């Protein structure tokens, strides 16, 4: 066991704030961690005891899958027999009625009441019932008890999406379904499926079967989705109240199209072919309301291409979505934002908007992922409106991976999904983007409270899944400096390993396992240093407690590589090219023997051990009692050596528990 330094006034006040935020949550062990936290929760004293025989009454239309969801839930509660009874005599009463009296017009709104009579769920639609069942699942029941409570809930944004890029790195149907299941459990409702890319076109075409031939794929050759696979995915999403949004990227990201057809998509022959493919798609998978047509990262030399494809798609019955900034999209096309800083989408916007700016987890450090998403305001508004549909979290691992599960180890996919689920359901957040935990008492307390629920969900529901996250809100750092190094990154101070920097200016106190001093997008993402200076050195000091002493696992890193840049691997004997160093109790912790030491960046060479979340933890010898950590953080120029190697001035150092 470890504990932090003796409680300081700010930590004491933090604990008080946490109790003020959720006083009833501290009163009883029967109160369960809910995520996303519902709009309104009133906990009452007592519990409803679930019997082996449960009487159920359902009023209104529910799908077979929704009924199956309830049956699985009851099985988890050790219910052995179900009987259907009149509404007033039921242990569980479910009312799905368009006229239900709920405080929101949202079709996803629901109410749960658990009292001595049993459980009652009210909703206007089956979607609301489905979401209520997800919350009911989190209330427990495996111990035969449900806490008395009254919950009223509805989302702040009607579009709560998650994008998976399978064009670059193929994912099997089982892995896709696993992610869709997690989306459903946490009330995300849009699955953005990106299956065409420069690397490969991964959806079978009956008209052009050679499009998915292994010879036309630069990565994962021969891996694609059949018509039956796609139909299964659409149905799988629909059962779980998730809308599948397909993306056929055009005219950019289309090298696979060009390789096979030997023509540019914007040429006359290319237009005819892509129209044929889109029509085949619409005819094969009828009823999909949206088609994402891409439009970004390409020179538009045929100004009629996107207007023509927009009309073609609309005539086939689908509304278009396109990337912004991108090509000459039409006014009726929904804009999905992906570049630039915070932006308030107002109700007089010229377009309907989905926010995906700074929501790319492939660019984020795994610990930073949870921090930045927790505070992230979507669309610059605390809730959606007619023009602001919501947001989509994106997983764009451009770099090749050896195994499909590596995407989950290198990117904090499930911690990100859960954090984004909370923010996109509850709304709120800060307009200003940030990469570090707020150090003020209220901001720290709010993060710690959420982190506590997140880690409980990791323990309860993700035992067999990759979930790269550990508690970081208690890791306190004091930053000192800057000290001018005149470009000499090896410059040393006397006794710098001991952590006594009283002669240096104290910059401030920060919390987290990852501290970002200066983000590579420092113009839009706030770091710890307000005015970073070139050719300077910062020191960070922290303490950790060890009850017995001995070896302790640590996550340690200094330059979390984006999974989208062709960044170089560190050289042997160094943590990074800034000559960062770290000591514990004045003993230096040396970097790993990198397997790709000094390797020039290449998107086709998978990352192996360059990041702390996908290599074995660093083992550090601790003393019994308090242990002092010192991190040295020199920097030269405040820019990377090239665009593939941007400067992200940061460090990660966090003692972690051994995974069970």
Give the gist of this structure.
The protein has 660 residues and is an alpha/beta fold. It is built from twelve helices and 27 strands.
Describe this structure in words.
It is a single chain. The chain is an alpha/beta fold and about 650 residues long. It folds into three domains: about 40-155, Chitobiase, domain 2 (2-Layer Sandwich), CATH 3.30.379.10; about 160-435, TIM Barrel (Alpha-Beta Barrel), CATH 3.20.20.80; about 475-655, Sandwich (Jelly Rolls). It is about 25% helix and about 25% strand. The protein is built from twelve helices and 27 strands. It has helices at about 10-20, 65-75, 125-140, 175-185, 225-240, 255-260, 270-285, 305-315, 365-375, 405-410, 415-425, 440-460, and strands spanning about 40-50, 55-60, 80-85, 90-95, 110-115, 120-125, 145-155, 160-165, 190-195, 245-250, 290-295, 320-325, 335, 355, 390-395, 435, 475-485, 505-510, 515-520, 525, 535-545, 550-555, 580-585, 585-590, 620, 625-635, 650-655. The strands form five sheets. It has an eight-stranded parallel β-barrel. Strands 1-7-5-6-4-2-3 form a seven-stranded mixed beta sheet, with helices on one face. β14 (about 355), α9 and β15 form a beta-alpha-beta unit. α2 (about 65-75) runs parallel beside α3 and α7 (about 270-285) runs parallel beside α8 (about 305-315). The longest helix is centred in the C-terminal third of the chain and has 21 residues, at about 440-460. It is globular and about 80 Å long. It starts with 8 loop residues before the first helix and ends in a 5-residue tail after the last strand. The model is unreliable at about 1-30 (pLDDT under 50).
């Amino acid at each position: 066991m470890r504990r932090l330094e003796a409680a300081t006034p700010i930590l004491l006040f933090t604990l008080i704030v946490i109790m003020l935020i959720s006083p009833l949550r501290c009163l009883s062990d029967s109160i369960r961690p809910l995520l996303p936290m519902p709009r309104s929760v009133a906990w009452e004293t007592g519990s409803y005891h679930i019997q082996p025989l449960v009487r159920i009454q359902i009023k209104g239309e529910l799908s077979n899958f929704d009924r199956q969801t309830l049956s699985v839930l009851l099985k988890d509660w050790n219910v052995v027999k179900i009987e259907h009874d009149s509404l007033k005599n039921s242990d569980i009463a479910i009312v799905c009625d368009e006229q239900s009296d709920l405080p929101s017009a949202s079709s996803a709104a629901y109410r749960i009441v658990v009292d001595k009579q049993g459980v009652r769920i009210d909703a206007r639609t089956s979607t609301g019932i489905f979401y209520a069942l997800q919350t009911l699942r989190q209330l427990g029941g495996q111990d035969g008890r449900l806490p008395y409570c009254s919950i009223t809930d509805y989302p702040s944004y009607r579009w709560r999406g998650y994008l998976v890029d399978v064009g670059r790195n193929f994912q099997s149907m089982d892995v896709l379904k696993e992610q869709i299941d997690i989306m459903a459990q946490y009330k995300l409702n849009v699955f953005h499926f990106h299956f065409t890319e420069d690397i490969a076109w991964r959806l079978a075409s009956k008209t052009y079967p050679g499009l998915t031939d292994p010879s036309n794929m630069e990565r994962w050759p021969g891996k694609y989705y059949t018509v039956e696979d796609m139909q299964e995915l659409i149905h799988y999403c629909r059962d779980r109240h998730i809308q599948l949004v397909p993306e056929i990227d055009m005219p950019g990201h289309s090298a696979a199209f060009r390789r096979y057809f030997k023509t540019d998509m914007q040429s006359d022959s290319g237009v005819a072919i892509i129209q044929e493919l889109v029509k085949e798609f619409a005819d094969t998978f009828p009823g999909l309301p949206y088609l994402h047509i891409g439009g970004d990262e390409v020179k538009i030399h045929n100004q009629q291409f996107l207007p023509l494809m927009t009309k073609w798609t609309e005539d086939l019955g689908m509304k278009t979505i396109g990337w912004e900034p991108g090509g000459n999209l039409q006014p009726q096309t929904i804009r999905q934002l992906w570049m630039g800083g915070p932006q308030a989408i107002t109700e007089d916007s010229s377009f309907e908007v989905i926010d995906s700016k700074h929501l790319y987890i492939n660019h984020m450090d795994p610990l930073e992922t949870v921090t930045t998403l927790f505070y992230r305001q979507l669309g610059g508004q605390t809730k959606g409106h007619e023009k602001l549909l919501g947001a989509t979290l994106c997983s764009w691992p451009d770099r090749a991976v050896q195994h499909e599960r590596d995407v989950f180890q290198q990117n904090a996919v499930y911690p990100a999904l859960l954090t984004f689920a909370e923010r996109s359901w509850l709304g709120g957040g800060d307009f200003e983007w940030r990469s570090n935990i707020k150090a003020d008492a209220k901001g720290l307390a709010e993060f710690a409270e959420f982190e506590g629920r997140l880690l409980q969900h990791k323990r309860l529901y993700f035992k067999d899944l990759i979930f790269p996250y550990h508690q970081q809100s208690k890791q306190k750092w004091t930053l000192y400096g800057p000290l001018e190094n005149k470009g000499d990154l090896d410059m040393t101070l006397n006794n710098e390993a001991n952590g006594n920097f009283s002669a240096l200016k104290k910059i401030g106190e920060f919390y987290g396992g990852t501290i970002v001093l200066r983000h590579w997008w420092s113009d839009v993402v706030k770091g710890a240093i307000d005015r970073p200076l070139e050719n300077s050195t910062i020191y960070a000091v922290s303490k950790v407690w060890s009850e017995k002493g001995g070896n302790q696992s640590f996550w340690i890193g200094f330059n979390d590589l984006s999974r989208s840049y062709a960044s170089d691997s560190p050289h042997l004997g160094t943590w990074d090219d800034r000559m960062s160093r770290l000591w514990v109790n004045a003993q230096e912790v040396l970097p790993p023997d990198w397997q790709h030491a000094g390797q020039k960046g290449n998107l086709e060479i998978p990352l192996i051990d360059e990041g702390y979340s996908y290599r074995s933890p660093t083992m550090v010898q601790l003393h019994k009692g308090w242990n002092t950590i010192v991190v040295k953080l020199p920097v030269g120029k405040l820019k990377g050596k090239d665009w593939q190697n941007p400067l992200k001035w940061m460090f990660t150092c966090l003692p972690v528990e051994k995974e069970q």
